[in-house]
Amino acid sequence: MSPAGPTPPGDSDRGLSPSDRGLSPSGPGPSPGTHPSSTGPGGALALHRVGTRAVLVDLPDLDTVMAWHAALTADPLPAQRGIVAAASTLLFTAHTPDAATRAFELLRDFASETSAQTGGREITLDVVYDGEDLAPLAEHLGLSPEALVEKHTAETWTGAFGGFAPGFTYCVPAAGGWDVPRRESPRTAVPPGSVALAGEFSAVYPRRTPGGWQLIGRTDTPMWDESADPPALIAPGDTVRYRAVRPTAEAGAGAPGGTEPASSDNGGPPAEARPGGDASATPPQPVAPSAPAAPGRPVLRVEDAGLLTLIEDLGRAGYGDLGVASSGVLDRASAWTANRLVGNGGASAVLESIGGLRVTALVDTVVTVTGAEAPLTVAPGRASGAGDPRRHPLAHPLLLRAGDELTVGGPRLGMRSYLAVRGGFAAHRVLGSAATDLLSGLGPEPVRTGDTLRVRNRPRPAGAGNGGEPAPTTGSAPGAPVNATPLGTSPADAPEPETGAIAAVAAPAPNPLRVTGVRAVLRCIMGPRADWFDAAEQARFTQVPWQVSGRSNRIGLRLEPGDGAAPLTRSRDGELASEGMITGAVQVPPDGNPVLFLADHPVTGGYPVIATVVAEDLDIAGQLPPGSAVTFTPVDPVTLTPLAAAGPEAASGSEGPAGSEDTAGADAATGHAAAAGPVTGDPARPDTATPNDDPEDPS
To answer: Is the pTM of this model over 0.90?
Structure first.
C-alpha cells in the first residue's frame, strides 16, 4: 500500500470492475492545459477546472490539504458552495460558473498560514478488539495481536476528511509508521461499528456496507446521528483515541459475518446502489431507523408504485465533508416546472418515478406531471361522476376530485416522471432536505404500493403558532455546512424560502423534457484527469457513441462503447488516491467503460475523471433510458463554446481568464447554446424564482 493512503472502502467507483487497485505514491502531474502553480511551500501544485462550477487543487501532502481546508472553512471565498478534502487534493465548488472562474485565479496564489486545522474535539472510542483480520494483520506487520492493539490504542489519531459514507472519517496517526494493505478479497458486508485500518488511515464503518479494509475490532459508539449537530461524530481536526475494553485481544471472536465470498466490485456498494446495479432494486437500509411520518394532510394513496418511485427535492448540497452527496431530483427543470404549475416553491418535494405510477386522490387537490413523455389518464371517481378514463397532457395543472385515480403510464421518451401536488409532499428531512439518496440511505424510504402520501401543513401567520413542519432557513439544518457562504443578493441567486405558502395555479407550460430521441449530445469540460489518457484516446472519447447500460441508476450512468468500438485505454499505470467528485464527473475504471456520475454519486472516487458534463446538460443525462446513445462534446468552461477537438488543446478548460463573465451561461440555461444536445424548444429551466441553478455538488 502506498503512503498516499487507500482508496475509500466502498466508493462506487470501486464497484464498477473486479480488478484490484493499487495506488501510486502520489497523484499524477498536471494535465495538459491545467495550471501548474509556482507558489512556495503550502501552495498548490496544480489547479484543474472541474466542469463549470468546481476547481480541483493538487496539494503537496495531507497536512497542506488540512491546512487549506481549515483556512477556507474559516474564511470562505466568494460564492463558495463547499470544499471536500482528500489525501492530496481539495475540491472547491461554487454557486455559479463565474464564481468558479474567479476562485480558480484566487486559489492559484492561495497559501494557508496555518499547518493544520486545530481546536477540534477530543473523542474516545471504546473498542472490543476481536476483528476477524486482527491476527493475520498482526502477523503481516510482524506483531502479536496484543502488540497491534497496544500500538493502535497508544496512537493519537486526527480526523482528516470524510467521503465514503455519512459518518465515515479518515483518521491519520500523529506518530505515523502505519502502512496497512487492503484485503485482496473485499467483504460484501462489513458490520456497522467495525474499526478498520488501511494504508495510513484508521476509521469506523458507520453502517453495513461492502469494504476491503482490515477489521481489527468493533465499537458500539454511533458514528452518525442525523438529530445531532453535527451529525457525524468525528469531524476534520478532531482528536480520536481508541480504548480497548478487553485486556487481551481475541482475534476473530466477535466479528459477525465470517469469511464473506469475494465481491466482484472490489469493495464498492451493493449492486442496487451503484451504476452497475439495478435501478429498480431495493436500496440499502437507511443509516438511521425510519423516522415517523412528517406532519401533513393525507392527499394521495399509492395504488401502484411502478418500478421505483422516490420522494425528491433539490437535495442537500454542501455536506461533502460529512460523506453526504447532494442527491435530489435528476431532471431539475421538470421538477421545478411541476412545482410552479401547482403554485409551489421550486424547492418543494415531488415524486420522481420510473416505470409508471398510479395514485388515488383522497381529497380534492391539484397535481401536475412533467418529465418523461408518458400517457396520463384519470379515471373519474364518484365525486367526478364516474365514467371512462380521460387522457390529459403533461405540464398542465390537473384538479383531482376525491376518488379520482391518476395513472402515469410507461414512458415513450425519457426515463423519469415528476408528480407535484399543490402544497408540496410532506416527508422527513435530513440535513434540511427530503431527498432520497440511494447510495447512502439518507432520506425517506422509496414509495411503496399502499402508502398514503401527505401534503405539508401550511404555516399559520406569524405569531399564531405553527403545528406543521417548520420552514427551513439558510444554515438552520443540524450540521449545516460551515464552509459555504450565502448566495449573492441578485434575484437569480436568492434562495427561495419554502414556507409552505402556495401561489395561484399557473397556466399550462411546455413539458421541459430535453431528450428527443435515442441519441443525445452532452457538453463537457475535459479533465481534471484527462492526461491519464493520450491525445488519441481523449479524441476517441468524444467520438464514440456510448450506450447507456441497463445497470445504470441514480448513482450514475454506466456507458459501453457502441458501433463496435473498444473501451478506453489509459496511458498511465497505477491508480489515483481518491479525490472529491461532483455530479457530471465521467470516471473511467480499469475496464475502460466510462461511468457518468448522477446526483447520488459517492463523495470521493479513485478512478481518473476524463471529463465532466456541464451542469446545464445534467437534466438530459438524468432522462436517458437504457439503450440511449451518448456522445460528448468538449466546450470551453467559461463560454461553453464547442472546442475543435479533444486532446491536450481541448483540456485547456482547466484555466479561464480571471473575472470573465459567463457570456454563454444564459443561453446554455435556456438551451440555445451551440452543441446543447437534443432540445425540444426552450426547456423551462429554473429562473429567478429558483434557489439556484447549480446541480453540481462537492460530495
So the answer is: no
